Amino acid sequence: MKRLICLTLCLALLPSFSLAQSVEDSLIIGMVSTRTTQVTPLIPQERDIMSLYALMYESLVTIDDNGLPQPLLCESWTETGGGKTWTFKLRENITFSDGTPLTANDVAECGNFILSLSKDEMAEDNGFYANIRYMVSSFKARDERTVEVKAARPYYGLLYSMTFPIVPASQIYSANPVGTGPYIMTGFEAGSHMLLNANPKWWQMQPQVQEITVTFYPNNKDMITAYEYGRVDTVFTRSVAAAQYRSGNTSLSISYSTRQLEVLLLNHRERSFPLDNVNVRKAIRYAINEDLISQNVYMGMTLDADTPYPSDSWLYYDQESSFVFNPDKAREILAAEGWSDLDNNGILDFPVEGAEEPKHLVLSLYVYEDPENDVRFETANMIKDMLYEVGIWVNITTSSYADTLNMLESGGSWDMCLCAFQMDVVPDMGFTLRKGNTQNYGRYNSTAMTELIDELREKEDQAGFAYTSQEIQRQFAADVPFICLFYRSGAILTRKMFTTVRSIREFELLRGIEAFGR
User: Fold this and answer.
1) Is beta strand 349-350 parallel, antiparallel or unpaired with respect to 85-90?
2) Cα dist. 514→67, 181, 210, 424 in Å?
3) Buried b (16+ CB within 10 A) or exposed e, 252-284
4) Which of 426, 460, 454, 470 is nearest to 156 (CA)?
5) Are the beta carbons of 96 and 179 closer than 8 angstroms?
6) pLDDT digit string (tens) for 312-342?
7) Which are the contacts of 383, defined by CB distance < 8 A and separation ≥ 6?
8) Dist. CA 426–CA 151, nearest whole Å
């Protein structure tokens, strides 16, 4: 039911021709950019700039509106050896914008560059595509149109990792390389602007929007001001302040999805009473009203996520009854586990045999703020109030991101931590759930979950991948490793409609502009 509601809302957010005006042959965009000094698509430096790269550079595989891999620069793929080898056949007669033919060697060299960087222990930054090292062991050009990919893991998730940009092998180490996409860059000044024009050599039908002008701003405030004064047609923002801009007669507010999952981590360390008790963890889950947090703190700029799988994913498995807000259920569970308010102070207690004092249900909650999310502390206070309603007292401690990360990595005596995961394009949640993984910060230790993660990573077919993903979600509901609040969403504010695609997402904020008006 929750997924149906989500899909209905997504459809409601699609551009309507009764709102704003339709884009013609040009679009002016405002974007925050302070770190991109060169156009380096294989090593992107900023999130929103990648939406511009997506117009200039294409990949072997694209992800469709339903979240499924589809051919792009390749026309087909096959897997052999139980998913150990994947062979991609390139489309014929595709050229880069300078007229140079696209070859399998270009793809293989780009893939091996990204793979080498991802494994470089001396590199300060292993790159945006670093997780490819978990999927791929090597790329090889078998002939002009055939790319052979050896899998590090023989499973379906490898296809998602084939979404990196392709540039000529001779320009991998150069700034401003040419691409095969619908647009080419005709001007760029760091911190100032970028100009894009339609690529006359693009292998598909020419775009209606022939020119895109991008103005860079140092911060979100200046960018929004430029939009308000009509200096730009379109801006992208994840600030909750964007919620005040509603669709009207001359302007649209279009929601887009991000990969940022807001979570309440729970510490499963050995003898971590009372959080070592799954029923206590379930009580905490029932006591938290994530919808109220979404509306009051994030102004509705969120996407439901009962588990690490977003509710708009083709892999999502609806278990609404397991996650519905129900404080009475939380109280019932805690009472059944032996917790009661022995001294009538509103905080539950647990009698401990041989001890003079009972164990009080008092938990620590660590929270950090960061430049991208200045509302997390408010969320922490709402969670504190919600848990107090069922007899749990929470002590909030604020710290820096670096100190919080150090605490999580080193273990320690914390109980709960409010933070976020940046999820990968590959829908594999094992990095947070598998026993012993470095980002399993709560030390969640489940043999059943670990076996499911390992099983997922052996599924080379779509059906098997989907079935095991559902089993992982069932196990998540049973164990409550941590509490998923929601995925963050952002807003595209625009006076000109430029797309009709159903799924607009982070890193592809201009998705569909190349086909608009056809």
Assistant:
1) unpaired
2) 19, 9, 9, 25
3) bbbbbbbbbbbbbbbbbbeebebbebeebbbbb
4) 460
5) yes
6) 999 999 887 778 999 999 999 999 999 999 9
7) 264, 288, 293, 365, 394, 418
8) 14
Spatial contact of 488 and 302, defined as CB atoms under 8 Å apart: yes
Q: CA 412, CA 371: separation in Å to the nearest integer?
A: 26
Cα 518 from Cα 206, distance rounded (Å): 9
Contact 514, 55 (CB under 8 A): yes
How high is the pLDDT of residue 19? 58
- Find all residues with CB under 8 Å of 63, minimum gap 6, and list them: 69, 70, 160, 163, 425
**3 state DSSP class of 213:** strand
At position 449, the amino acid (one-letter code) is: M
The DSSP bridge partners found for residue 418 are 264, 367
Distance of CA 116 to the CA centre of its chain: 24
Q: Which of 281, 337, 325, 299 lies closest to 478, judged by CA?
A: 281
- Are 360 and 345 in contact by the 8 Å Cβ rule? The answer is no
What is the predicted pLDDT for the residue at 371? 61
Closest listed residue to residue 40, CA positions, set 187, 172, 217:
172
Closest CA to 339 of 394, 277, 417: 277
Write the pLDDT tens digit of every residue in 341-385.
Answer: 999 999 999 998 877 889 999 999 999 976 655 689 999 999 999
Encoded tokens for 223: 């960018």
Joined together, the tokens standing for residue 259 give 């990969």
Contacts of 65 (CB under 8 A, 6+ apart): 501, 502, 503
Bridge pairing between strands 146-151 and 252-266 = unpaired
pLDDT band at residue 92 using 50, 70 and 90 as cut-offs: very high
* Dihedral angle of Cα 292, 296, 302, 304, to the nearest 10 degrees: 0
| Count of C-beta atoms within a 10 Å radius of residue 438 | 7
Is residue 496 within 8 A of residue 275, CB to CB? The reply is no
- C-alpha–C-alpha distance, residues 415 and 382, integer Å: 17
Q: Which amino acid is at 211?
A: E
**Cβ-based neighbours of 335, under 8 Å, separated by 6 or more:** none
Answer whether residue 472 shows pLDDT above 90.
Answer: yes
Which of these, 21, 114, 92, 107, lies nearest to 58 by C-alpha position? 107
Closest CA to 146 of 108, 116, 95: 108
Question: What pLDDT sits at residue 352?
Answer: 86
Q: Would you state the torsion angle of the CA atoms of residues 239, 241, 242, 247, taken in this order, to the nearest 10 degrees?
A: 160
Q: Which helix (H) or strand (E) holds 433?
A: helix 430-433
Phi, psi of 496 (to 5 degrees): -130, 125
Q: Which residues contact residue 274 at a Cβ distance below 8 angstroms, ignoring those fewer than 6 apart?
A: 280, 337, 350, 359, 361
